[in-house]
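Dataset card, provenance and construction

Sequences and ligand SMILES were collected as paired inputs. For each pair, a complete structure of the chain with the small molecule in place was predicted and serialized as structure tokens. The example below shows a pair involving pyridoxal-5'-phosphate. Curators did not alter the output after generation; any descriptive sentences attached to a record were derived from the structure itself.
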Amino acid sequence: MNRFISIDDAALRDAADPLAPLRAEFHLPTRDGEEVIYLTGNSLGLQPRGTEAALRTELESWQKYGVEAHFHGPNPWMPYHERLTDSLARLAGVKPTEVVAMGSLTGNLHTLLASFYRPTAERPLLMCEAKAFPSDQYALASQAQWHADGELFEIRGTDPEGAPTPDEVLAAIEAHGRRGATLLMGGVHYFTGRSYPIAEITAAAQAKGMLVGWDLAHAMGNVPLKLHEWGVDFAAWCSYKYLNSSPGGVAGLYVHERHHGPEVFRLAGWWGHDKATRFAMPPEFVPEASAEAWQWSNAPVLGMAAQRAALDLFDRADLNAYRAKSLAMTDVLLGMLDHLAAQTGQEIKVLTPRAAKDRGCQVSVQFVGRDRRFFDYLVSKGVYADWREPGTVRMAVAPLYSSYRDLARLEALLAESLTK
Ligand SMILES: *Cc1c(COP(=O)(O)O)cnc(C)c1O
């Protein structure tokens, strides 16, 4: 069988890739002595080589200074979270005052909704996409239940698995937006890999008088974001997927500066209190005039140290080159899958939209009629992807460490397993 991408083609493309040198900054897992083809950066990103030293630095500060490490050592802990702010602001496309590293994704969704989902009898609806990630479904349902006037409205659709297309979202906003309090959606759908037009959907829902937030778990470090310019009200993300910041790593949130005033209701904690008087510990909460006002607790320094090491690598990457590589690699992946289908007669259904504007790093496909043995064989050969019945495989490239050689090796292994 001739190949869609040969090892030689791949070598040429890797040589021309401006991001290729960053691969050496990561630990690539191995299997039977060979680097695996790692396609699950959308689930857990790989460990940067700098992570260990970053953790060691803070462990040493703790050893040497104890509590005084809040003020001493190379990175005093008191303002530690601020060390992440600029890098996160760049990836989210926001002002540094609008972003903070904190908490966990689901926890951040809850604390943001406490501020930005305040249903009334006239506007009861919390609108979201059907077939959202399970944690979001549970979190949003409980938010709607919590308020006497709350009501969840899932926008159903015709995409694979029943998630809505952008047109179906816009139609639902048009039809029901006047009863909507808040729209909260995933920016990139975790299952299909569809990237939603955040600016357009945000503007449509806001025109109906709704507040609009986005879950960017699969969007941060994946697709280009300009949350401030798009006028998005709020957003949250986790950092262990494309951001490579360690399992369960510290999450983040964004709040547009128009909501930074003291009149906004917040579920408060001491780290959100005005820094100037935080340690005077006055009885009344005075919020910081920034996204930091949503912080509850002091910084989990070790987790943030790991995230700092991961963001150092993003800081070195030109984001246009990052997006270009993501699209070029997923183009190769899609072309390769079509080629394999034609050559082997295997039906391969692509669940991810093909247009560049509608996708990021992930390609989800169904190998029709294949069962788990097909996938287990791939894993045994060092292809790490994500399996879901029936026959569905989610594969994500990660522009900081994925190579075209990975794709060439993937094609050979897929060809072999489909003709076995
Ligand atoms: C990964 C993911 C989560 C996970 O939530 P945690 O609170 O980090 O466990 C939630 N929502 C979406 C959309 C995700 O992709």
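Derived descriptions for this record:
The pocket of pyridoxal-5'-phosphate is lined by residues 104-106, 133, 135-136, 186, 190, 215, 217-218, 238 (CB under 6 Å).
The longest strand covers residues 180-186.
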